[in-house]
User: Which sequence fits this backbone?
């Protein structure tokens, strides 16, 4: 009797364990492969809207890609180039304007909850002036695409060679929240580097260095 | 072929020591299986890792001039000593990470010494005072100001005591501060003192100043005890000048007469050992040989024909020679002035009308200050540490402790600040505004590369506040500057008009004040500033403690140098602990030293250096060399007061962490020398191409490096440059004793000859980047491989640490990380170069030929669509070399500097007979002596 109960309990436990473990086993991957990483960010910034719908070039915000190793995350001051004037969705602004017309008053400034976070970070008052009584709070974004510390990836030669950003970062312009698409491991890098021995990319020959010291030093 | 040796032991028994295998390091089978099992488990666990959610925090408002991830430079002035060389502070993301030479600076012309480059580590020193101290308790600036104002209210006799201040603004602020008091005086002293030179010029020229020397204009240089390539007045500037004449076309002739073996002496064409007590006698003889009327004299202690030959050379080079002297006696310096005047050198090779302000100390004023101390109301100590610096420091301490007000501006708790009522820490030089006029007509600015990291305040601001006029250092400097301010900030320097002082030579009354007696019997003590520590102001810098001394190659200590004969007479060997009067020191046998001389470096034994007891890895067999409260080395300056010197063997041994026999090339042909005449005849024999190795593919570039041994002085600036650039760790004394120092460049120092004839050669050796690299063929995991540009790459993340490569390297230039030699101090980690990986335990490393700099230049060239220009890539060692001895470039470019050097008849490569085809080459050292011949190679 007891033995039967134990057997059943063990079997059930085994089945449950299998159910719990199988997805994890299937999800096992090589060390360092973080493809699919899609963390929540402090501000629900939409690349689909900015890059896809509004067609803002990648390098407008990520100008570091041409000037530095890091493409970088734009400074809040770069966001403010537009968001000084744009503080909410057009539909919300229209709705407020119509409501104001009905109620015979001046329309209020509508600020979406996400853009409000930007103003809080910069400690701006409703008139877009710096409110000195409040501290500024830098925005802590979660880094998605990163290579290990012993790899020195540099954006500049890749941009100079005419590579499109999507080649490594995937179709960011379709993503509401950015997700890592590629594995970013060495095999993936080298597969591309090996093919670039002077082949024409965007009208000029691209040469990729396959020496170890191109990335490791 | 000359018989080169690196130490006395090697001369007597030419066997290099090897690492001792005492059998304790064996791993048994069980342990091996346990570890193997654990490793597999660890790999399995690590495979399940999730991405580390690193935060990326962009600027809120982006500054225009900073691009994240991109280095930029700020032109400034070095404050490592009073010479004030021009520097470029390389910063990344607002954080200074390296000091490089400013190539346009009129004095230092791109050179920076080891000390200057190590200054950047001091910025991130966690033991730097972070707030003012009032009565030894942490306080705030307002309380300090109230306290000082209260104490100064009734003060009459106020003294400011400082080391040389080459800054016009600081001096003006001090004068304004002192003008309020009935008897306010500013007293300056230097350690070591150059007061005698100034005093002598006051007598002969009516100007109390040190002349500006021009070694580049002198064809014949005679230096008596002046270490002008090492530590004397402005060594970087002098090295630039001296090395510009070390070529076949205009080789200068340099004689050094000295008691100890100095860096300058080791580079001289002729070296003569003298008893320093006979400097006056020798100078009198020299003056007489040059035709000055002199009374009858005691004969010279050596064959007078030697000095006559020197005098002949000097006479033949009228107006083209230079005699310098490091003596502290005014009589000696008067003789030097007379000699230089007779040789027509004033206005040609030394200039007193536009003098140097790098040494302004006055020993006379200092004596008066100490005599006046009991009646002094307030003493302010700026940029010096009298209780430690002065030979009578203990007495000074007693006097200071009774004063009503003592204020210091020290950045660390030091010997003097112990007695101070208020300690007002000054900014680090990389955080402060300052100006300098090191030489008349040359104005230089110091500008901050970073905001003050701690709650410190510029000394000028403190003084200005107490004078009643608030003023920031920036305003004080800018308001006094008349020229183009923006251009000066960009360049780091400006030319200013020179006020002519109308000096004229006014001979001292005959007979000459020469010395006319034999040297007293017994030992003479020579106290010299160590190349790295100077007067002790850099005692908190771990890089400098671990920098091998250019001559003795000892790290982490000071020691008593004895000549081989004296050591033999007293039965003393290297590392024996001896007692010199009341100080116990390890002994070091120093070839080329005078038998009557015992030489000891000052600058050691500073309080607070017990912090270094913690440096080095923690493991079972780790030994500490410092008991709590014990200092690194010993303070010895008080020995200057002692008339008689006695040495007593204690019978104990001390561990001298010397690197001179480490990484031996097993006595194979190391350095080569040639004469200007022979250099034109020799031709480099191209090595045969046949061998075991496949012929190298010729890539787009072929990087190569060459070191001119005629120019290299062995100053070791490149060692620190490399350390700062490549994140080379400090390992501590215990690890150095185990031959585990990590410097990527070592400077081999070879002696040849004995007694009076010791000559020295310095040879920097880093990875030679062999074309047929022996390390590459033995690496089982392909962690060291060849690049298409001819470099030997070490790939840290692939290395598993077999050390086969190290064993197979004929040059012994590979370094193994036995431990994670990380900085204990997380604050100090801010100095790390983000462009170079920090290596972890079990990984081999070596000179990478600054591959990060090559990549940077390659990427920039690619962006511009242009080829990399010759000279666009500068190695860290090359950039700041004070002697311009290192050249790097592309051999595929026939017009590059390196291609020209490769075709120089003096060019050779180390161990060429091995046919490893190194990319690094050397230019043979040039010497005047006829005995230097091309050594015969075997095979």
Assistant:
């Amino acid at each position: 009797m007891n033995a039967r109960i134990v057997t059943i309990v063990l079997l059930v436990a085994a089945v449950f364990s299998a159910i719990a473990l199988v997805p994890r086993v299937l999800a096992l991957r090589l060390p360092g492969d973080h493809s699919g990483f899609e963390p929540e960010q402090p501000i629900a910034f939409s690349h689909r809207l900015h890059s896809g719908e509004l067609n803002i070039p990648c390098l407008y915000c990520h100008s570091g890609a041409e000037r530095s190793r890091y493409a970088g995350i734009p400074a809040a001051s770069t966001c403010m180039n537009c968001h000084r004037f744009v503080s909410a969705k057009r539909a919300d602004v229209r709705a407020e304007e119509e409501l104001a017309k009905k109620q015979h008053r001046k329309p209020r400034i509508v600020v979406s909850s996400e853009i409000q976070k930007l103003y809080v970070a910069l400690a701006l008052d409703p008139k877009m002036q710096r409110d000195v009584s409040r501290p500024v709070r830098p925005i802590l974004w979660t880094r998605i695409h990163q290579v290990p510390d012993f790899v020195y990836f540099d954006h500049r030669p890749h941009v100079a060679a005419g590579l499109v950003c999507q080649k490594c970062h995937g179709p960011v312009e379709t993503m509401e929240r950015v997700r890592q698409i590629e594995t970013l491991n060495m095999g993936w890098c080298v597969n591309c580097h090996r093919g670039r021995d002077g082949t024409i990319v965007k009208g000029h020959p691209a040469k990729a260095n396959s020496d170890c010291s191109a990335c490791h030093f | 072929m000359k018989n080169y040796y690196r130490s006395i032991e090697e001369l007597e028994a030419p066997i290099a020591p090897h690492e001792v295998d005492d059998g304790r390091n064996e791993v048994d089978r069980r342990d091996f299986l346990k570890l193997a099992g654990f490793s597999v488990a660890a790999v399995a666990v690590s495979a399940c890792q999730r991405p580390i959610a690193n935060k990326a925090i962009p600027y809120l408002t982006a500054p225009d001039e900073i691009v994240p991830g991109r280095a930029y430079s700020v032109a400034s002035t070095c404050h490592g000593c009073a010479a004030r060389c021009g520097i470029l502070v390389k910063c990344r993301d607002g954080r200074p990470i390296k000091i490089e030479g400013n190539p346009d600076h009129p004095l230092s012309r791109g050179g920076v010494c080891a000390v200057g480059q190590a200054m950047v580590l001091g910025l991130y020193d966690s033991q730097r005072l972070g707030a003012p101290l009032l009565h030894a308790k942490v306080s705030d600036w307002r309380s300090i100001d109230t306290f000082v104002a209260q104490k100064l209210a009734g003060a009459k006799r106020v003294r400011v005591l400082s080391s040389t201040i080459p800054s016009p603004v600081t001096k003006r602020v001090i004068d304004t501060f002192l003008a309020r008091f009935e008897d306010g005086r500013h007293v300056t002293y230097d350690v070591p003192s150059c007061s005698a030179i100034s005093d002598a010029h006051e007598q002969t020229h009516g100007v109390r100043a040190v002349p500006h020397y021009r070694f580049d204009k002198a064809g014949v240089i005679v230096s008596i005890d002046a270490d002008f390539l090492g530590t004397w007045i402005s060594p970087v500037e002098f090295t630039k000048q001296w090395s510009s004449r070390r070529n076949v076309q205009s080789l200068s002739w340099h004689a050094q007469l000295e008691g100890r073996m100095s860096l300058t002496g080791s580079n001289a064409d002729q070296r003569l050992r003298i008893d320093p007590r006979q400097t006056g006698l020798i100078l009198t003889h020299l003056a007489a040989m040059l035709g000055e009327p002199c009374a009858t004299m005691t004969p010279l202690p050596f064959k007078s024909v030697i000095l006559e030959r020197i005098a002949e050379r000097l006479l033949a080079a009228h107006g083209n020679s230079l005699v310098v002297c490091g003596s502290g006696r005014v009589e000696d310096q008067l003789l030097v002035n007379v000699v230089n005047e007779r040789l027509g050198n004033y206005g040609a090779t030394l200039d007193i009308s536009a003098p140097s302000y790098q040494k302004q100390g006055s020993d006379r004023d200092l004596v008066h200050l100490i005599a006046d101390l009991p009646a002094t109301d307030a003493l302010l100590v700026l940029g010096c540490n009298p209780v430690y610096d002065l030979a009578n420091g203990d007495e000074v301490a007693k006097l200071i402790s009774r004063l009503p007000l003592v204020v210091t501006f020290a950045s660390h708790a030091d010997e003097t600040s112990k007695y101070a009522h208020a300690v007002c820490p000054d900014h680090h030089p990389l955080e402060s505004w300052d100006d300098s006029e090191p030489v008349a007509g040359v104005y230089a600015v110091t500008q901050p590369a970073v905001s003050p990291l701690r709650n410190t305040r510029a000394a000028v601001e403190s003084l200005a506040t107490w004078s009643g006029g608030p003023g920031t250092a920036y305003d004080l400097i800018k308001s006094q500057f008349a020229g183009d301010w923006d251009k000066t900030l960009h360049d780091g320097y400006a030319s200013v008009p020179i006020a002519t002082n109308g000096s004229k030579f006014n001979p001292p009354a005959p007979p000459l004040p020469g010395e006319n007696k034999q040297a007293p019997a017994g030992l003479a003590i020579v106290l010299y500033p160590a190349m790295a520590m100077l007067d002790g102001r850099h005692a908190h810098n771990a890089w400098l403690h671990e920098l091998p001394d250019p001559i003795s190659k000892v790290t982490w200590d000071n020691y008593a140098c004895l000549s081989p004969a004296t050591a033999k007479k007293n039965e003393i060997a290297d590392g024996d602990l001896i007692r010199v009067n009341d100080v116990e020191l390890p002994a070091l046998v120093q070839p080329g030293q005078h038998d009557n001389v015992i030489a000891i470096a000052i600058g050691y034994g500073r309080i607070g250096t017990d912090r270094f007891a913690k440096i080095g890895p923690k493991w079972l067999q780790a030994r500490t060399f410092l008991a709590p409260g014990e200092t690194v080395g010993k303070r010895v300056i008080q020995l200057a007061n002692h008339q008689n010197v006695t040495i007593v063997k204690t019978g104990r041994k001390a561990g001298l962490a010397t690197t001179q026999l480490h990484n031996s090339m097993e006595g194979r042909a190391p350095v080569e020398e040639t004469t200007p005449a022979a250099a034109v005849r020799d031709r480099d024999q191209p090595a045969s191409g046949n061998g075991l190795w496949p012929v190298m593919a010729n890539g787009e570039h072929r990087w190569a490096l060459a070191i001119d041994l005629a120019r290299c002085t062995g100053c070791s600036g490149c060692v620190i440059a490399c350390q700062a650039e490549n994140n080379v760790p400090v390992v501590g004394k215990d690890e150095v004793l185990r031959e585990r120092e990590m410097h990527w460049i070592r400077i081999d120092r070879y002696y040849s000859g004995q007694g009076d004839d010791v000559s020295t050669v310095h040879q920097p050796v880093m990875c030679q980047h062999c074309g047929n690299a022996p390390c590459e063929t033995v690496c089982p995991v392909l962690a060291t491989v060849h690049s298409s540009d001819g470099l030997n790459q070490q790939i840290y993340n692939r290395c598993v640490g077999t050390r086969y490569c190290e064993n197979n390297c004929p040059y012994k230039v590979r370094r193994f990380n036995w431990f994670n030699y990380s900085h204990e101090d997380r604050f100090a980690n801010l100095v790390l170069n983000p462009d170079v990986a920090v290596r972890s335990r079990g990984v081999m490393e070596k000179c990478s030929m600054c591959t990060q700099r090559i990549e940077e230049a390659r990427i920039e060239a690619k962006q511009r669509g242009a080829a990399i220009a010759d000279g666009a890539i500068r190695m860290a060692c090359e950039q700041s070399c004070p002697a311009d001895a290192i050249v790097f470039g592309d051999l595929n470019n026939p017009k590059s500097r390196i291609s020209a050097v490769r075709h120089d008849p003096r060019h050779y490569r180390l161990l060429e007979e091995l046919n490893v085809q190194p990319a690094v080459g050397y230019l043979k050292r040039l010497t005047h002596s006829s005995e230097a011949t091309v050594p015969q190679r075997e095979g």
About this structure: The longest strand of chain A covers residues 197-201. Strands of chain A lie at 141-142, 197-201, 204-207. The first helix of chain A runs from residue 2 to 26.
